[in-house]
């Protein structure tokens, strides 16, 4: 995720605020009006991008798996693999179940 738009818009907002403040103190009425009218939308957009950036950072840290010992969480155990004889009997049972004719109901 790029932070360039947030940095650019923050700089633009800060620059507009400085221009507005300077033009108010220097009695530049037209410049103060223009920079004052553009400051609220810039500030809202800057806050919106800041909120989105924070939400993306929180979401990315929540999705990131936590690394424990060996890359697995403590207490997480691996299921034991069935032996070849047990796997063969399961395959026979599955084959016997599929040999029975099934009745299909037409709609």
Shape: elongated
Overall pLDDT confidence: 80
Q: Hey, roughly how much beta strand do the residues contain?
A: under 5%
Order of helices and strands: HHH
Helix share, percent: 55-70%
Structure characterization notes:
The protein has 107 residues and is mostly helical. It has a domain at 1-61. 68% of the residues lie in helices and 0% in strands. It is built from 3 helices and no strands. It has helices at 4-25, 29-63, 84-99. Helix 1 packs antiparallel against helix 2 (29-63). The chain starts with a helix and ends in an 8-residue tail after the last helix.
Entry keywords:
107 residues, 68% helix, mainly alpha
List the helices and strands and how they pair.
Layout: H1 4-25, H2 29-63, H3 84-99
What's this model, at a glance?
The protein is mainly alpha-helical. It is built from three helices and no strands. It has a domain of 61 residues.
């Amino acid at each position: 995720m790029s932070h360039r738009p947030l940095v650019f818009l923050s700089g633009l907002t800060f620059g507009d605020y400085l221009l507005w403040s300077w033009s108010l103190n220097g009695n530049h009425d037209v410049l103060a009006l223009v920079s004052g009218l553009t400051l609220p939308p810039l500030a809202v957009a800057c806050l919106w991008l800041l909120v989105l950036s924070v939400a993306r950072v929180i979401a990315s840290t929540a999705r990131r798996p936590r690394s424990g010992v060996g890359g697995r969480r403590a207490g997480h155990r691996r299921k034991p693999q069935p032996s070849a004889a047990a796997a063969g009997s399961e395959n026979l049972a599955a084959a016997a179940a599929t040999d029975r004719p099934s009745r299909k109901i037409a709609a």
